[in-house]
Amino acid sequence: MSSKRIAVIGTGYVGLVSGACFAYLGHKVIGLDIDEKKIELLRKGEVPIYEPGLDRILRRALERGNIEFTTDYEYAVKNSDFIFIAVGTPSKEDGSADLSYVESAYKSIAEYIGNEDFKIIVNKSTVPVGTGRWAKEFIKSLLEKRGIKNPEERFEIVSNPEFLREGKAVEDFMKPDRVVVGADNRDIAGMVASLYEKLQPAMLITDLPTAEMIKYASNSFLATKISFINEIANICEKLGADVTVVARGMGLDHRISPYFLNAGCGFGGSCFPKDVKALIHTAKSVGEEPKLLSSVMKVNEKQKLRPIEKLLKHIPELKDKTIAVWGLAFKPETDDMREAPSIPLVRKLLSLGAKVKAYDPVAMENAKKVFKEEIKTFGEKLLFVDDKYEALEGADALILITEWNEFKEVEFDKLKGKVIIDGRNIWEPSVMRQFCVYESIGRV
Ligand code: UGA
Question: Active site located where (predicted)?
């Protein structure tokens, strides 16, 4: 495989993982970010996010001289042939995707494309369907303004959506289920596809809007699976069925597959909620009424508070009761708190007058930022403690929200006599009920 020159705009988890992995594969990568402090850290091989395996890959790439970091757009654009955009596309108030970071990346890139250049601009950021074609016109007009001749011949836009899970991002990059590349020009799409050659992935080459849609449809489908199994779980509880076994039985059918059928207290993170909302917004903008997708979100909002409904069955008055909370991150193996089910859940406990003692193995610092206002307002009623057992001291009940491994191996003695709400079905009901009041999701 020949080594290619790649710039990656944005060193968040998608940009950094993609950049470091491309460099690890032998390409020459320039990582760009406007945040100078971050760039300083990265030059030293320090990873500013919690992502297992990433520090090792990054250091190896730095040692081999395959990756460098800069804040200088001119340098990045002039010294690369492929420019990947991996900046955030957060949700706006109305659910639509905020494209301001993507737009400003296009503008900065367009400033440095010269008369003799040909740059392949690849969107890794999740952008609404249609953005690629719009970007073509946008960049063309920027180049025209600069007096660049035949501007449409100076660049091509490609969509190459990412399917990386936080916490497993390096593994997902190195062993992808598939690589999707969409472009109006198939040869150019093929050139982007060849960057992944060494990984020998299943490859799908499409047009631009189709590639963009594959990303939204995939995330929305996974979110739908979760809301579906959560709804089934709630019905199971009323009928005496066990949702974990139901999911296993369903998953044995290869048309269904066993993945993303774990019932719990809802999905969070920076992707599913944002992408489902954005797809709903896009659908409405073209006159569609996506009822299923809207229900996926509604079921999820309700499910996040399901553990509290269960708690109230056993402790109807939470005023001045102490509730331990285990797990704050939106899922294990990450310190990410974005859209975490713990956020509405802790807020609701506080509003019901409970005292909360919360613990997470890695997300404590981020959690303190998220709950900044509550820390001020509720003072001693919201405590962040350094150890899972410390959270249990004096607690009347425990709610488990995130299924970190360290919670699975617990000294059961410490849970004795408490009300335990297991929001992720990590313990065995028959074992737990021997020494505590135990509730889980979709199991009686
Ligand atoms: C998700 C997708 O899985 C990735 O393929 C995609 O690339 C990424 O979004 C993205 O768009 O960037 P991620 O948000 O890291 O990845 O997290 P997941 O592992 O998918 O979990 C999302 C949420 O669903 C978590 O809150 C998790 O607890 C919940 N979940 C997951 C369930 O409640 N049940 C399940 O069976 C699986």
Answer: 271
Question: Which amino acids are annotated as binding site for NAD(+), given as ranges?
Answer: 33, 38, 89, 126, 166, 274, 338
Helix (H) or strand (E) holding 314: helix 306-314
**133 in contact with ligand 1, CB cutoff 6 A:** no
- 304-439 folds as Rossmann fold (3.40.50)
The pTM of this model reads: 0.95
State whether the beta carbon of 165 lies less than 6 angstroms from ligand 1: yes
Ligand 1 contact, 282 CB (< 6 A): no
Q: How remote is the CA of residue 331 from the centroid of ligand 1, in Å?
A: 8
CATH number of 5-206: 3.40.50.720
Distance 269 CA to ligand 1 centre (A): 7
The set of catalytic residues is 271
What is the token pair recorded at 95? 């659910």
User: How many whole angstroms from 264 Cα to the centroid of ligand 1?
Assistant: 13
As a whole number of angstroms, the distance between CA 326 and CA 347 comes to 15
Measured in Å, residue 346 CA sits from the centre of ligand 1 at 21
CATH topology of domain 216-301: N-(1-d-carboxylethyl)-l-norvaline Dehydrogenase; domain 2 (1.10.1040)
d(C-alpha 356, C-alpha 358), whole Å: 6
Q: Which residue of 271, 302, 303, 360 sits with most ligand 1 atoms within 8 Å of its CB, as the best mutation to test the pocket?
A: 271
Q: What is the tens place of the pLDDT at every residue in 157-208?
A: 999 999 999 989 999 999 999 999 999 999 999 999 999 999 999 999 999 9
pLDDT digits (tens, 9 = 90+) for 115-156: 999 999 999 999 999 999 999 999 999 999 999 999 999 999
Cα distance between residue 276 and residue 95, in whole Å: 9
Query: Looking at 196-306, which runs of residues are DSSP E strands?
Result: 203-206
ipTM of the modeled complex: 0.99
Looking at the chain, the domain(s) classified CATH 1.10.1040.10 span 216-301
How far is residue 409 from each of residues 358, 360, 388, measured CA to CA in Å?
18, 15, 11
Name the one residue in this structure whose structure tokens are 């180049």.
Answer: 143
Structure tokens at 259: 């993945």
Ligand 1, atom nearest to 162 Cα: 7
Beta strand pairing status for 203-206 and 179-183? parallel
Give 181's strand partners: 205
Pinpoint the residues of the chain covered by CATH 3.40.50.720.
5-206, 304-439
What does 57-80 look like in DSSP terms, one character per residue? HHHHHHHTT-EEEES-HHHHHHT-
Output the CA torsion sign for 133, 139, 144, 150.
negative
